[in-house]
Amino acid sequence: LGGQLYQLSKAGKLCVPAMNVNDSVTKQKFDNLYCCRESILDGLKRTTDMMFGGKQVVVCGYGEVGKGCCAALKAMGSIVYVTEIDPICALQACMDGFRLVKLNEVIRQVDIVITCTGNKNVVTREHLDRMKNSCIVCNMGHSNTEIDVASLRTPELTWERVRSQVDHVIWPDGKRIVLLAEGRLLNLSCSTVPTFVLSITATTQALALIELYNAPEGRYKQDVYLLPKKMDEYVASLHLPTFDAHLTELTDEQAKYLGLNKNGPFKPNYYRCLGLPRNQRHLGSDELPALELVFASPTTYAYMNSEK
Ligand SMILES: NC(=O)c1ccc[n+]([C@@H]2O[C@H](COP(=O)([O-])OP(=O)(O)OC[C@H]3O[C@@H](n4cnc5c(N)ncnc54)[C@H](O)[C@@H]3O)[C@@H](O)[C@H]2O)c1
Prior knowledge:
This protein is of the alpha/beta class. It contains 12 helices and 10 strands. The protein folds into 2 domains: 2-23 and 193-304, no CATH class; 50-184, NAD(P)-binding Rossmann-like Domain (Rossmann fold), CATH 3.40.50.720. Nicotinamide-adenine-dinucleotide binds next to helix 2, helix 3 and helix 7. Keywords: NAD, One-carbon metabolism.
């Protein structure tokens, strides 16, 4: 959704300053990667009661959500194929041990198709026509745009609702595919989202609101801003006690050696753990404006320190 904010901003249609919390590291890692790593299995189990071992799965998109889905399915013994358009994410998929393919190459043989691209019409009617009997089709990405579900509403196909959120779409020759949640987000429709993940995302959103509220007049224009690294670190630090985790503190000598403040931020703003957020990939392209980095107002920092 961060991308859509930038498009609004570029078109001059953004009426207020906006914080792109979607591309914060904590949001990306927990909501997108770790949450999807768990909830893809939950969503598939609750709807289909299937076993994952030995199943052939194709995951479209190897961003944060795709990485989570692939890791979970691989761990369950599934044979996982990946499709990508971005050579960097594609290379990551290869290095992680997944076969990078075009959807057309595997569409006849796979048992499950999962979309995680944030794009539209990734799975078309042509793909759906070529899938084998009982193939499960679902979406973990944006809204309900990734699978062309509308193309399945034609007179020759029969829809049969077999349980809540599960439809069989039946072809004239008897072939049926199993469509989950009518192409909407599988985990949001068919499983639960852990409160821990919600807590991390909500903390990020709350901090962004506090910063927008505290900021002196005129500090933020009608544009899109990212949270600074220090705020991301703060969100993570609030959640560490859950694990009885003990964070190492820099010695004065080490802080000096690395050129860091002992209290953070510990990484530069442009640093992203493993992933490549959408807007960073597009930096310098015509599509999106360059990143504007936020440095929290003193009042927000005071709030963060008082809470610690
Ligand atoms: N289900 C959930 O709980 C959940 C959680 C967070 C985000 N999301 C949504 O999931 C989507 C993906 O999020 P993300 O953080 O992984 O984004 P991302 O940008 O990191 O990853 C998407 C990947 O898809 C690739 N891609 C784009 N078009 C493609 C195509 N036609 N074929 C193959 N690959 C293609 C991109 O190159 C990119 O690497 C977004 O729409 C996001 O809003 C869902």
